[in-house]
Design brief:
- The chain contains 17 helices and 19 strands.
- By secondary structure, it is an alpha/beta fold.
- It folds into 2 domains: 337 residues, TIM Barrel; 80 residues, Arc Repressor Mutant, subunit A.
- The mean pLDDT is 93.
- The protein binds iron/sulfur cluster.
């Protein structure tokens, strides 16, 4: 680790968004209600495909680092009213969109989708297929918690048409697992990976987290060595977002146990080095894939895009998201559902929808979203090409952003030319900071800034 990079990490480790949307979720507002969402659904969307998402919020137990909308419960009976609500929401939504639109992507997240028993997995997927048309080559993926998983769950997923699975691994060190209340052995992970391969899932992703309590560079190198040995197709290595003021249960993690800036940098460097040596390509912020993976090809072809599901090849799809707290997205709208489980079910019971808040994007929002996304996906931006797409003079339109980028260029995070911006190797760690230079909301909100997790 160079002391210069460590200095940069200290300098640029500030609260900031991850930019899975722009404007970011804290700027969605309640003036955007059900009527606005129905209007968005009714808007013709020629040429735009669909990406479907279902949120299953239930988990058997609570991981202390969790940042998701989830309910830890051993009462399986809670799934019955929830599945009824999510099915109604799908039916009402499907009735309001052009039935010829095809879904290229379908994803279940949570919570823990495999909290559902195999019969309910089949039933929910049947419902989705009844209401929406999937393309034969659709990417159909599910987040899976290896604990409490049986082969029958994976068989139900496979028979229902899922072709991708993503397992939460996080960290294999016993002390870290203890500190975050998530105990899972290497034998368990090996077993679920073997089952997935036998059942013919075409892509297996493993999720890891850096920045967890008790994590050291040495212990995480051992985790990485184990993980590389399992040979997943993709890896997502997220930085732990410690926001105990938002997620009260994160108070169960002692600040003193969290790795400091030097350790976080060492962890990040271990990730880049060991995954690089194992042949994985780093795609921007937190994703790694094999060189032949379509995400890598999309990055090379400059067709990669970033949304609530991370990096994707489906830039021109609208996300229709179902379930508590889920976020839908059309070309110019974001909409988030009610975040409280009981209220979500009640509201869907009444009207078929549970819109909590949202936002209609202005043209400026769309231009800035494009700029932020392009920098985070392509790692470069050509002023002339971008300006042509939006009919703007880039350097004039983004004069303030370019001025804000100047100190980052002086620190070697970006190359700032007269006609393009390029993210440097060091700058890859600071993509969120680079994105923040284009964010008008951050500048405008002098007094009531939403509080984000640290950028690095
Ligand atoms: S399994 Fe996932 S969603 Fe559930 S508590 Fe753990 S991290 Fe959160």
């Amino acid at each position: 680790m160079t002391s210069k990079t460590l200095d940069l990490l200290r300098k640029y480790s500030v609260p900031g968004p991850r930019y899975t949307s722009y404007p970011t979720a804290p700027y969605f507002h309640t003036d955007f209600g059900e009527a606005s969402w129905l209007e968005a659904l009714a808007t013709p969307a020629a040429g735009r495909g669909l990406s479907l998402y279902a949120h299953i919020p239930f988990c058997d137990s609570l991981c202390y680092y969790c940042g998701c909308n989830m309910v830890a419960t051993r009462d399986y009976g809670k799934t019955t009213p929830y599945l009824a609500a999510i099915e109604r929401e799908m039916a009402e939504t499907a009735a309001r969109i052009d039935g010829s639109r095809l879904a290229h992507q379908l994803h279940w997240g949570g919570g823990t989708p495999t909290y559902l028993n195999p019969d309910d997995i089949r039933r929910l997927m049947d419902t989705m297929k009844r209401h929406f048309r999937l393309t034969p080559d659709a990417e159909v993926s599910c987040e899976v918690d290896p604990r409490e998983l049986t082969r029958a769950h994976l068989e139900a997923l496979r028979e229902s048409g899922f072709n991708r699975v993503s397992f939460g691994v996080q960290d294999m060190d016993p002390a870290v697992q203890q500190a975050v209340n998530r105990i899972q052995s290497a034998e368990l992970i090996r077993q679920v990976m073997d089952w997935s391969r036998e059942l013919g899932f075409s892509s297996i992703n493993l999720d890891l987290i850096v920045g967890l309590p008790k994590q050291t560079v040495e212990s995480f190198r051992r985790t990485l060595a184990q993980v590389v040995g399992w040979a997943p197709d993709r890896l997502a290595v997220f930085a732990y977002a410690h926001v105990p003021w938002l997620k009260k249960h994160q108070q169960l993690i002692r600040d003193a146990d969290l790795p400091d800036a030097a350790a976080r940098l060492g962890l990040q460097q271990a990730v880049n080095e060991m995954l690089g040596e194992a042949g994985y390509v780093n795609i921007g912020l937190d994703h790694f894939a094999r060189p032949e993976d379509e995400l890598v090809r999309a990055q090379q072809n400059k067709t990669l895009w970033r949304n609530f599901q991370g990096y994707t090849t489906h830039k021109d799809s609208d996300i229709l998201a179902f379930g508590v707290s889920s976020i839908s997205q059309t070309a110019d709208v974001y909409m988030q559902n009610e975040k409280n489980l009981k209220r979500y079910q009640e509201r869907v019971g009444q009207s078929g929808f549970a819109v909590e808040r949202g936002i209609r994007l202005t043209r400026d929002d769309q231009i800035r979203r494009d700029a932020i996304t392009q920098v985070m996906c392509d790692l470069e931006l050509d002023f002339a090409r971008f300006g042509e797409r939006w009919n703007i003079a880039f350097a004039d339109y983004f004069a303030e952003a370019l001025a804000d980028l100047r100190p980052l260029a002086d620190d070697g995070l970006v190359e700032l030319g007269s006609d393009r911006i390029a993210v440097t190797e060091t700058g890859r760690i600071f993509l969120r900071n680079i994105g923040m230079c284009f964010d008008r909301y951050l500048k405008d909100a002098a007094s009531d800034k939403p509080r984000y997790s640290r950028t690095a």
